[in-house]
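Our platform keeps sequence and structure together, in a single record for each protein. Because each token names a local backbone shape, the row as a whole describes the fold. One such record is reproduced below, unchanged from the form in which we store it:
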Amino acid sequence: MAYSQQALKEQVAKAAVEYILPLLSPTAVIGVGTGSTADLFIDELAKHKQQFKAAVASSERSAKRLADHGILVLDLNEVESMPVYVDGADEINAQLQMIKGGGGALTREKMVASVAERFVCIVDESKLVERLGAFKLPIEVLPMAINSVSRQIEKLGGVARQRVGFITDNGNPIIDVEGFSVEDARELESTINQIPGVVCCGFFALSPATIMIIGTQEGVKQLSHQPLSLQYL
């Protein structure tokens, strides 16, 4: 019997908690991402809340879910380092480069991840791609820069559209870009980051995930940066 996407997400959330259990300690602060898979991870993590100090959330949504479970939520400014950050992705390739931000939390996700010693990406197999770009690339921008950034994006070959009716937790709009298709997004991420008015680009390629835990029909597997091979957990 084939597993549903929801079942795969549940399996990978449980596997992620098992993966980070050795990293937990009474002083540990855990970075937590945003999205449907991250929600399931939070629910599993809560079963072990006595084994770590607190969490830092990448969105108000995740902060509320953590707090509802009785987990202390700290501001990123209160934390110098974290052993791990756990989050999902909208797309991820074999180099563990990602597109993130479908839920609009890309800026905070990138900030929280930057403080962690390792980034554990948790996905179902539908998110694994050869080339990034089928999923529209989110870019958070300053309000006055929507049109100017969109014009610069079009010069790079993308088609930008403002996400209607959406404002990030930081108070900014997002433009979603289609038309990109890249095997290695590092150069394009760097170029977009340099456009005046861009707050954050949804490519996570300059700082990719450390490890991916992926739910497949054949079981939960992991893909590390080195070696680039799938292994059963």
